[in-house]
């Protein structure tokens, strides 16, 4: 009779243990598997924009009109530079593609800067979001010349020749 009592106690102890901890069957029961995380396109745009701007030789992001409008907006009191300016992304469930419009500094090897941008953007986006970056397309829209700094910092007036 003591055998049946012992086996009864053991089965109730096993039942209590199975409720207090996940079964040890090799399945993934971590919190990451219990729900869905979505990452907005704007988040990926900001990450990619910041990563691209950190690369030496990149003067600015954005093409023609968007840079002009952005520069005006940045000069307004309380205006902040947009980290996503010049960046377009397509974000899927597991992958992302990034398109960048950039302005490079005069004298830098453009193909090397483009390669460094790709490395920086892919690393930052994949590390921070877990998305697989399938492509980073770069359009070089302009070259910044050293004497253009006066025009940008000079107060926004137009130049008459």
Give an overview of the whole structure.
The structure is a single chain. This protein has a domain at about 40-150: Alpha-Beta Plaits (2-Layer Sandwich), CATH 3.30.70. Helix 2 crosses helix 4 (about 110-130). The protein has 5 helices and 4 strands. It has helices spanning about 1-20, 40-55, 65-75, 110-130, 150-155; strands spanning about 60, 85-90, 95-105, 130-145. Strands 1, 2, 3 and 4 form a 4-stranded mixed β-sheet that branches.
Outline:
With 161 residues, the chain is an alpha+beta fold.
Largest sheet: 4 strands, mixed
Radius of gyration: 27 Å
Looking at this structure, what is the CATH superfamily of one domain?
Answer: Cation efflux protein, cytoplasmic domain
Q: What is the CATH architecture term of one domain?
A: 2-Layer Sandwich
* Tally of DSSP helical segments: 5
CATH topology of one domain: Alpha-Beta Plaits
Strand element count: 4
Helix percent band: 40-55%
CA-CA gap between termini: 109 Å
Task: Give average pLDDT, whole number.
Answer: 77
Which consecutive residue ranges, at least 5 long each, have pLDDT under 50?
10-21, 65-70, 72-76, 153-161
Helix/strand-derived category reads alpha+beta
CATH class of one domain: Alpha Beta
**Percent of sequence in beta strands:** 15-25%
Shape: elongated
SSE order, one letter for each helix or strand? HHEHEEHEH
